[in-house]
């Protein structure tokens, strides 16, 4: 029998996090454990308020999950189909069960999950994210990220050029740009992209609102830099038409409902010629370790969500000089935590 337990938790950020349209200092999460024959699998739901899930919605959803009919954890398709149909939406809390189930399966098989998916384990060069802030704080964040080869810079406001100029006063490293839907005019967006091309920028993530499909179709045909769909691409069905509006997709486990769907999305993207970015929210080392298992499928890695929090209850893969180094442990690769010592925390 598979048993489910869960705990509400709050992640506290090391720094105030600002993007186009929101500011926060913490992130609500729910930590999940699945147990089968004394073996534990761990997962999490990370739920920035912008996306509509909360500890209340997650715990309500989990209270409705009944895994008693499922005797075999290897029957993942049936289990996760059942979970997906409990209620529409709720992608992050669905991801928490998916991640925990895959962790459990990997541990029962005594293999890391990348092997379970038929992928090689490899070192992953991740970017380091720097949010919108004052010039002095941006300079400080850039200096703190000196070990990272790539920086991800949040834009989407009226002072985008000032932010880039500030970054360039400190470093000439290649940049990933995330506009978080902040650019509203397609021609002005193109002007910014053409300027950013000369600033050693690699790509632009979600330049325009999810509703601006015609504008994105116009922009993707003219952009000199790859455009990546993030908020516009949630689950597998979104990959089918993504090529009309983007050159690449950003796959996040908290959007996709977990590893099973993320793998399907990445496989479909590769077949249709879309490039792949693996991204994250503010997350513990649990969800970051999960996403890293699919790293061999990605063109770009942005898995630094655990590096910006103060109270990570898990220990996963080490990050050295901006490189995630797989440890070869089974399942997600977590150093097994003491579940009983993790205290529920709701802000």
TrEMBL record:
GO MF term list: magnesium ion binding; racemase and epimerase activity, acting on amino acids and derivatives
SMART domains documented for this protein: MR_MLE
Signal peptide (UniProt feature, chain positions): none
Co-factor: note: Binds 1 Mg(2+) ion per subunit.
Top-rank taxon: Bacteria
Required co-factors: Mg(2+)
EC number(s) stated in the UniProt entry for this protein: 5.1.1.-
InterPro entries, sorted: DgoD-like (IPR034593), Dipeptide_epimerase (IPR034603), Enolase-like_C_sf (IPR036849), Enolase-like_N (IPR029017), Enolase_C-like (IPR029065), Mandelate_racemase_C (IPR013342), Mandelate_racemase_N_dom (IPR013341)
Keywords noted in UniProt: Isomerase, Magnesium, Metal-binding
Binding site for Mg(2+): 178, 205, 230
Domain (Mandelate racemase/muconate lactonizing enzyme C-terminal) ranges: 135-226
UniProt key word Isomerase: yes
Pfam families in the record: MR_MLE_C, MR_MLE_N
Active site (UniProt): 154 (proton acceptor), 252 (proton acceptor)
Similarity comment text for this entry: Belongs to the mandelate racemase/muconate lactonizing enzyme family.
Protein name: Dipeptide epimerase
Species the sequence originates in: Sinomicrobium pectinilyticum
